Structure to design on (1437 residues):
């Protein structure tokens, strides 16, 4: 063993230079080694001097052997400790280099520091130096690991820790090391699990923060390592904690393999890893209590999404962009039939809202039929018409919604349109019913009525042939029927309409008819079947109306407005909306007057949603543009141009027509110049006050014209006119105490404001709104009760004349008044506001509920024209930005209703108004369109109510929302009364989400109510509870979390009673499993790590541990009991388990014991064992997460592999068990070796062979002075370590007698002896071959066998036998480069004077080669010529 000496710097540097020089033999350097640098400094010194890896390993081994020589005799000496110490040195050295790879820190807010970042890899020189040192370190580590000089477990433990704490730059380098040693890592889950977590985290970081071109190789290598882990160690990826965090990234890796050309050979492995991934996914979901059999609500959830899509359709929707049926829907008939059933049922069910729904269904079906037919024609396959007919017939035949008599009119409307567009064949329908012998079709034969008899009688026919009419008649009424009931009913209805419309007979009507009068006179029409209504309108009434308006197109009489209003109302009441639009377009094409044009525009705007969903916008736009062109030369209509621009949306008008429309709008605005040529606005306009006493018929018109000409240059002259007019109206009660003259003055002011509205480019409405939201609030609040009696009728009449919109009054007067009344906190403020509250409530009833009797205004009755205009105005309240304000107003009504400081009459009026508005179907339609805004407003008010303890307010808010959606009432004080059936209906599921969220939010402060509600939920039928569990987390996540916590407490309390020995164990087990499954689905995607709520888990974990410890394998339900306990444990681990570390450790040991016990059975239940192993992995991960220990093996069981041996278990289970137990790495030198002692015929093992790499050094060569073997006694013969392993580790020692070299031994004997020496194995192969071949040749060539080499100057060689033995090639430590030169030198010593030529045959060769001996290469010096001139020849025969 070389000794360490202290050298000065010069000699030390010289020694290291020799060490770095490969030509200097190590045995020369091995006499002594320098003593000095250690650790990182020593490694830096080796790298700086460029010492090769094998020579550096020799030097470090010799240095280590010297350091450990003084420690070997101590009792506490550990042969592996020095390997661990060197592992720490190397790992610290590599970590120091990795830390030099720094990334720029993110800028911090508030610090304005300018700094430039320069990393070590940014400069070429520093990058090369760093890469050289880093690669040298890794090569040295590889050599140490191969020689067993480094503790492999320490190295791998450091590697898996470092990969998780590295940044992206460091990760790229460490990932290569992981890729290199992944085989060793996969031996243990403790090593593979941190690698999997780090790779998933870094992959997600790379995808989210780096462009695709950056770190592309690192990303692909990360994916490759994860896929290899799936194959080699899938248990590393079975971790619900990791799965919940990185499941999306993990799924993306296998959905997008990113295969490139250089990894095509890995395709089989990728396929295998993909199949393993599916199993890993299933195992993780099972640990999260999400079994593969999903709850039935999955289908309902899909239906709910379709319903939400249908309910989102409004007048803003482009129907061509709605994709309800997938393009390949016909490939799966079951899916298509279910979606078609949903669409048809949605269009007619009373549980949904909107008259546009049948037109949505028809348009979607028409689009799908056209696309499917075109695709079938292109692909030359059968048309989908027949299949579509079958599906439509099946819905009519079996649907419960279609069979409801109350929905017969809607079903007839829907299928009438389907027949019209040839989507459904009426003739085919009749033929199919007759072919199958449908009973109850005819009125004359069968008394039992078939549902199809009603359909045949109600479905209308458009442009039907006479044969089809006859077929319908015969099918319904028999062959002998000459006159059918429809004919008699049609004659009677025509008589009713003629009496209602005397204009057809040339008689002038005496008055405008009201809505109630119309309904009384046309009862037969409104009760008639859809078939009769369509026949009357299409074949009689609509042609008459069209002819009337065409005849009076140039000079329309005043009765045209009445005729249009009546015809429009008849069509509306009969829901003949397509005929309604045809009628409106006909009127537009015949030059209507201003009032008639206004009525037509109101109709279009009122039913614009139906217009859009029926794909009739194009026709309406053409008619509106035609009407606009007819008015271009005269007075243009501002509402007409605005509606035309809204409906067109740059889709239907040509570029020229749209440009012309824009120019016309600009010209219209130019007719109201706002130059400064007029006078400036004064502080008051006295003419407005004097208008009250001006009784001239045209006084209002003249004043409006004068003010326009005088102040048109002022932008706000309309605002000033309204301000002065309102001030004048306030004085009317004083000026005119009597009602009759005051009503005349009010009419005069209404006419004046109507004319002012026409003189303003944008109308009077925006000026009134600006005034009400600004300075007008003070004026409104100071009005007296008498002034309110004047102001309210005037405002309402202006709404009826379209000078002011009803939304303006709601925003400026009604809503602020409600909010002020809701906030009144004393009786003192009630008296001053009572008059305003009563007047505003009358105005609210008139606008929102069309309760005209409550408002005694200017007109004593409201005709159809005025009613239509008001209905159009009311539609605007439920649309767009106006709807949230309406919701806020209704919530104010709730607070008014509960405010005890207000008058009882006012509170009852508020309650009545709230109920009427919430029952309006238009409000429900708006609620579905603005569900998020409705939820946000209601939750805000509920929080206020809960905060102030207003349970009545919370109850009324929930009742109001329930009334809007047709849901049952819920009493917060009586949770048992909650009806959960609507929560499973697809039509009410969206609304039930909102209502449930509000209910739970209102009960969260009351633990008794919340517990009662949860108890009510768990007592419901399983299907209802399952559906409830699936969407409660979507409706109210934070409340769902509370429900899960409460339910979990009850579940674990019930689990304490689990007794496998009980008689009713199976039923109790079933109930426990159902509750666990429901809770798991309810808590899916929720964060259950809430320390404030999950502290109860510590005793739960302890309870499960006790159940596991007491589980008896002899009981009949032992396996079932273990299964439910493992699932309960998996669910419990989703909660906060911070205080349950000790119980988790106990659980881990119990689970392992049960796994071993089950694995030793003859028939192993692999499913149960796999489930328990997965649960054990979950427990280990939970312990690791809580402990935060740097040692990756700390949370794992400490059983040795021999103690956990299960030879009877399947190979897969044995492999999984080995990955969970402690792992030890052995070098190849001592692998599977053990010390043994033979006693008699018995071999006793004494323990494994310990690797001692630092306690020996290989023999580097023979001494410089050779010593013959016979000089040593037999007992003192040394054991030379000339190989790569220490023979002392195996107890090797010389035994028996040695071969003693005697004088006179020839080369042949010496060659045989050399084969038995220790150095024979490690000597050069070429040298051995040379010696053996030459010695054998010498024996064959007897004449020259004893020849010796002499000085070349001498003519003849001596015959000394020993002189022929030259220096052995083994005495020099030669490199491979110099071996050939040495051989040539030895060969050159042969005598050149041997001229005898003879033939000899080579031995040991399979070829027949004849060698003609001449001057051999061994007998000739290199570079000299053959003296005889004879060349050796080789001839093959």
């Amino acid at each position: 063993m070389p000794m360490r000496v202290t050298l000065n710097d010069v000699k030390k540097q010289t020694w290291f230079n020799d060490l770095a020089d490969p030509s200097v033999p190590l045995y020369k350097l091995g006499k002594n080694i320098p003593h000095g640098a250690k650790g990182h400094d020593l490694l830096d010194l080796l790298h700086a001097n460029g010492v090769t890896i094998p020579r550096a390993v020799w030097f470090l081994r010799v240095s280590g052997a010297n350091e450990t020589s003084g420690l070997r005799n101590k009792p506490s000496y550990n042969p592996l400790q020095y390997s661990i110490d060197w592992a720490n040195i190397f790992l610290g050295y590599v970590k120091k280099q990795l830390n030099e790879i720094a990334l720029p820190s993110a800028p911090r807010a508030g610090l304005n520091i300018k700094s430039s970042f320069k990393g070590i890899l940014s400069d070429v020189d520093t990058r090369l130096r760093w890469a050289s040192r880093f690669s040298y370190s890794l090569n040295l580590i590889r050599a140490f690991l191969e020689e067993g000089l480094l503790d492999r477990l320490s190295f791998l433990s450091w590697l898996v820790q470092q990969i998780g704490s590295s940044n992206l730059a460091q990760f790229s380098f460490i990932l290569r090391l992981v890729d290199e040693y992944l085989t060793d890592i996969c031996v243990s889950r403790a090593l593979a699990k941190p690698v999997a977590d780090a790779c998933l985290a870094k992959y997600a970081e790379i995808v989210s923060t780096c462009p695709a071109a950056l770190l592309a190789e690192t990303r692909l290598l990360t994916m490759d390592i994860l896929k290899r882990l799936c194959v080699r160690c899938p248990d590393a990826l079975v971790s619900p904690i990791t799965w919940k965090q990185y499941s999306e990234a993990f799924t993306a890796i296998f959905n997008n393999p990113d295969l490139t050309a250089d990894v095509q050979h890995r395709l089989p492995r990728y396929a295998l890893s993909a199949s393993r991934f599916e199993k890993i996914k299933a195992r993780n979901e099972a640990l999260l209590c999400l079994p593969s059999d999903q709850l039935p609500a999955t289908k309902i959830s899909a239906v709910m999404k379709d319903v939400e899509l249908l309910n989102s359709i409004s007048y803003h929707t482009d129907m061509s962009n709605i994709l309800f049926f997938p393009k390949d829907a016909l490939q799966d008939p079951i899916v298509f039939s279910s979606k078609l059933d949903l669409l048809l049922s949605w269009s007619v069910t009373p549980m949904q809202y909107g008259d546009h729904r049948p037109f949505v269904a028809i348009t979607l079906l028409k689009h799908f039929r056209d696309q499917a037919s075109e695709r079938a024609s292109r692909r030359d396959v059968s048309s989908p018409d027949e299949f579509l007919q079958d599906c439509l017939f099946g819905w009519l035949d079996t649907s419960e919604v279609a069979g409801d008599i109350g929905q017969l009119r809607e079903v007839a409307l829907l299928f009438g349109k389907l027949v019209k567009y040839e989507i459904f064949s009426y003739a085919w329908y009749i033929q199919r019913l007759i072919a199958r012998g449908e009973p109850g079709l005819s009125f004359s034969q069968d008394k039992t009525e078939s549902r199809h008899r009603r359909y045949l009688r109600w479905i209308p026919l458009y442009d039907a042939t006479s044969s089809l009419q006859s077929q319908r008649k015969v099918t319904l009424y028999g062959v002998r029927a000459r006159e059918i009931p429809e004919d008699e009913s049609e004659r009677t209805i025509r008589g009713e309409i003629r009496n209602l419309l005397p204009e057809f007979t040339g008689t002038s009507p005496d008055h405008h008819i009201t809505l109630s009068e119309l309904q009384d006179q046309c009862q037969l029409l409104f009760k008639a079947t859809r078939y009769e209504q369509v026949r009357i309108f299409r074949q009689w009434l609509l042609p008459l109306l069209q002819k009337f308006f065409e005849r009076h197109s140039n000079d329309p009489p005043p009765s045209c407005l009445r005729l249009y209003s009546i015809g429009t109302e008849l069509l509306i009441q009969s829901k003949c909306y397509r005929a309604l639009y045809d009628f409106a377009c006909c009127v537009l094409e015949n030059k209507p007057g201003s009032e008639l044009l206004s009525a037509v525009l109101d109709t279009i705007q009122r039913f614009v949603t139906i217009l859009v969903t029926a794909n009739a916008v194009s026709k309406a736009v053409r008619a509106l543009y035609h009407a606009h062109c007819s008015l271009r030369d005269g007075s243009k209509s501002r509402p007409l141009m605005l509606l035309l621009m809204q409906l067109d949306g740059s889709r239907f008008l040509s570029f020229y027509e749209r440009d012309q429309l824009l120019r016309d709008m600009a010209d219209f605005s130019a007719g109201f110049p706002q130059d400064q040529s007029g006078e400036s606005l004064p502080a008051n306009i006295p003419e407005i006050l004097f208008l009250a006493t001006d009784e001239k018929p045209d006084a209002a018109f003249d004043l409006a014209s004068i003010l326009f000409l005088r102040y048109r240059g002022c932008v706000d002259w309309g605002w000033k006119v309204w301000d002065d007019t309102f001030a004048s109206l306030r004085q009317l009660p004083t000026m005119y105490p009597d009602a009759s003259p005051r009503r005349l003055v009010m009419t005069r002011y209404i006419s004046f404001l109507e004319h002012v509205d026409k003189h303003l480019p944008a109308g009077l409405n925006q000026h009134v709104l600006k005034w009400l939201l600004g300075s007008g609030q003070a004026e409104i609040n100071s009005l007296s009760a008498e002034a309110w009696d004047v102001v309210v009728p005037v405002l309402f009449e202006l709404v009826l004349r379209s000078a002011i919109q009803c939304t303006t009054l709601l925003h400026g007067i009604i809503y602020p008044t409600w909010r002020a009344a809701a906030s009144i906190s004393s009786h003192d403020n009630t008296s001053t506001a009572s008059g305003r509250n009563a007047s505003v409530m009358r105005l609210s009833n008139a606008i929102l509920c069309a309760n005209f009797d409550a408002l005694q205004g200017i007109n004593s009755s409201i005709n159809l024209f005025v009613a239509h205009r008001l209905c159009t105005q009311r539609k605007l309240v439920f649309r767009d930005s106006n709807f949230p304000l309406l919701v806020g107003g209704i919530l104010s009504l709730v607070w008014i209703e509960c405010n005890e400081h207000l008058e009882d009459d006012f509170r009852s009026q508020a309650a009545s108004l709230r109920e009427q508005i919430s029952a309006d179907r238009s409000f429900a339609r708006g609620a579905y369109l603005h569900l998020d805004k409705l939820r946000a407003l209601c939750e805000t008010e509920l929080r206020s109510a809960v905060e102030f303890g207003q349970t009545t307010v919370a109850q009324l808010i929930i009742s109001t929302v329930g009334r809007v959606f047709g849901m049952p009432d819920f009493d917060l004080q009586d949770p048992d009364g909650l009806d959960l059936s609507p929560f499973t209906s697809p039509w009410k599921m969206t609304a039930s989400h909102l209502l449930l969220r509000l209910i739970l939010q209102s009960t969260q402060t009351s633990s008794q109510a919340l517990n009662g509600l949860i108890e009510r939920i768990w007592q419901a039928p399983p299907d209802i509870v399952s559906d409830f569990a699936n969407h409660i987390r979507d409706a109210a996540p934070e409340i769902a979390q509370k429900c899960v916590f409460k339910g979990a407490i009850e579940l674990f309390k019930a689990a304490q009673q689990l007794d496998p020995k009980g008689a009713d164990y199976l039923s109790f087990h079933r109930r426990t499993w159902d509750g666990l499954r429901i809770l798991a689905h309810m808590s899916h995607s929720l964060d259950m790590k809430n320390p404030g709520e999950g502290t109860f888990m510590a005793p739960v974990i302890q309870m499960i541990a006790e159940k596991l410890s007491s589980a008896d394998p002899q009981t009949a339900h032992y396996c079932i009991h273990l299964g439910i306990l493992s699932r309960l444990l998996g669910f419990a681990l989703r909660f906060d388990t911070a205080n349950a570390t000790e119980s988790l450790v106990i659980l881990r040991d119990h689970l392992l014991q049960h796994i071993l016990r089950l694995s030793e059975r003859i028939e192993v239940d692999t499913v149960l064992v796999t489930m328990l192993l997965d649960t054990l992995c979950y427990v280990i991960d939970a312990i690791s997460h809580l402990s935060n220990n740097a040692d990756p093996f700390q949370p794992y069981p400490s059983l040795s592999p021999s103690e956990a041996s299960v030879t009877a278990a399947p190979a897969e289970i044995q492999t999984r068990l080995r990955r969970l137990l402690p792992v030890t790495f052995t070098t190849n030198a001592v692998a599977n070796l053990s010390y043994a002692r033979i006693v008699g015929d018995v071999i006793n093992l004494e323990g494994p062979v310990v690797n001692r790499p630092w306690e020996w050094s290989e023999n580097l060569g023979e001494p410089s002075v050779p010593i013959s073997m016979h000089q040593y006694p037999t007992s003192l013969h040394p054991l030379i370590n000339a190989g790569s392993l220490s023979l002392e580790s195996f107890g090797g020692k010389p035994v028996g007698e040695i071969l003693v070299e005697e004088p006179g031994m020839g080369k042949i004997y010496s060659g045989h002896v050399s084969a038995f020496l220790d150095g024979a194995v490690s000597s050069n192969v070429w040298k051995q071959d040379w010696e053996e071949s030459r010695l054998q040749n010498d024996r064959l060539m007897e004449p020259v066998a004893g020849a010796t080499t002499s000085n070349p100057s001498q003519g003849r060689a001596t015959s000394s036998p020993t002189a022929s033995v030259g220096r052995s090639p083994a005495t020099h430590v030669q490199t491979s480069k110099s071996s050939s030169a040495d051989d040539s030198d030895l060969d050159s010593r042969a005598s050149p004077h041997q001229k005898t030529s003879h033939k000899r045959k080579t031995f040991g060769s399979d070829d027949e080669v004849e060698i003609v001996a001449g001057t051999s290469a061994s007998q000739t010096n290199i570079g000299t010529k053959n003296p005889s001139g004879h060349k050796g020849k080789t001839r093959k025969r």
User: Anything to note?
Assistant: The mean pLDDT is 78. Residues 353 and 925 are 5 Å apart (CA to CA).
